[in-house]
C-alpha cells in the first residue's frame, strides 16, 4: 500500500509542475505575516539533521542498555527502529540528491525575486536544489517508522507528516511539486527499507 501511495504522490507532484509558478505567486500573496511566523516555527520539525541526531542517540542509548544492563524487548525495538530510520533516510536521500543534481531546479525565491524559473538539466550545481524536497522525504520516513511502532496512530503520523511537508510550499521554500515528489520518495524508501532489511517492523499492509 505504501509503495502505491508513494507512487501516486510522485505522479501528483509531476502533474503539479504545470501549476507551480502560479501556485507559488498565489501562496506568496496570501500567506500573512502571523501565519508565516507560525509556519517558520514548525517547518524545521521535518529537518533531517534533527531526526538523524535523535536516531543516533536512541541507538547509542539502546546499545549501551543491551550491552550493560541486559536484553529488553522495548529497548531492542527502539534500537531496530532507529536503525530502520537511518536506513530509510539513507536510501531516500541517495535517490533524492541524485535527482536534485540531475534535474537542477531553481528555488521559488528565484522566481519571486528575479523572475528566473526552470530546470537546468545536468547542471550539477548544488545551488539548484529545489526538486524534490528533503524535508518532505524526511518526515514521511519518520511517519512510516512511527506507524510501525504505534500503528493505531497511523492517521495522526501521516497527517502531521503531510502538513509539515506542505509548510515548505506555504513558505515558498519549495514548489508544490517538490513537496509531493519528496514525500513520495520518502514513503517508498521507508517502505522498502523496512520490508527488505527490517521485516520484523513492517506491518502487513505496508
Which SSEs are present, and which pair or pack?
Elements: H1 2-16, H2 20-30, H3 33-43, H4 48-68, H5 73-103, H6 108-114, H7 134-149, H8 154-170, H9 176-197
Short description:
With 206 residues, the protein is mainly alpha-helical. Helix content is 73%, strand content 0%. It contains nine helices and no strands.
Keywords:
mainly alpha, single chain, 206 residues
Description:
- By secondary structure, this protein is mainly α.
- It has one domain (2-197).
- Helices cover 73% and strands 0% of the residues.
- It has 9 helices and no strands.
- It has helices at residues 2-16, 20-30, 33-43, 48-68, 73-103, 108-114, 134-149, 154-170, 176-197.
- Helix 1 (2-16) packs antiparallel against helix 9 and helix 3 crosses helix 8 (154-170).
- The model has no long low-confidence stretch (mean pLDDT 96).
Query: What would you call the shape?
Result: elongated
Task: Note the gap between the termini.
Answer: 5 Å
Largest sheet: none
Number of helices: 9
Helix content: over 70%
Count of DSSP strands: 0
| Proportion of residues in β-strands | under 5%
Report the C-alpha radius of gyration, rounded.
Answer: 18 Å
Average pLDDT for all residues: 96
Low-confidence stretches: none
Order of helices and strands: HHHHHHHHH
Count structural domains: 1
Structural class by SSE content: mainly alpha
Amino acid at each position: 500500500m505504501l509503495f502505491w501511495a508513494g507512487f501516486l504522490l510522485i505522479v501528483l507532484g509531476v502533474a503539479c509542475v504545470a501549476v507551480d509558478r502560479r501556485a507559488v505567486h498565489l501562496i506568496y500573496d496570501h500567506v500573512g505575516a502571523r501565519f508565516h511566523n507560525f509556519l517558520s516555527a514548525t517547518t524545521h520539525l521535518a529537518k533531517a539533521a534533527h531526526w538523524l541526531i535523535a536516531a543516533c542517540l536512541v541507538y547509542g542509548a539502546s546499545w549501551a542498555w543491551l550491552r550493560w544492563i541486559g536484553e529488553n524487548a522495548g529497548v531492542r525495538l527502539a534500537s531496530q527502529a532507529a536503525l530502520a530510520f537511518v536506513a530509510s533516510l539513507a536510501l531516500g536521500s541517495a535517490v533524492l540528491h541524485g535527482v536534485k543534481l540531475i534535474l537542477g531546479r531553481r528555488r521559488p525565491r528565484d522566481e519571486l525575486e528575479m523572475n528566473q524559473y526552470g530546470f537546468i538539466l545536468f547542471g550539477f550545481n548544488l545551488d539548484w536544489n529545489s526538486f524534490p524536497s528533503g524535508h518532505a522525504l524526511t518526515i514521511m520516513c519518520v511517519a512510516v517508522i512511527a506507524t510501525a511502532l504505534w500503528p493505531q496512530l497511523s492517521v495522526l503520523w501521516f497527517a502531521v507528516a503531510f502538513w509539515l511537508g506542505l509548510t515548505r510550499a506555504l513558505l515558498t521554500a519549495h514548489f508544490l511539486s517538490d513537496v509531493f515528489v519528496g514525500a513520495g520518495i520518502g514513503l517508498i524508501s521507508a517502505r522498502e527499507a523496512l520490508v527488505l532489511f527490517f521485516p520484523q517492523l513492517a506491518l502487513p499492509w505496508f
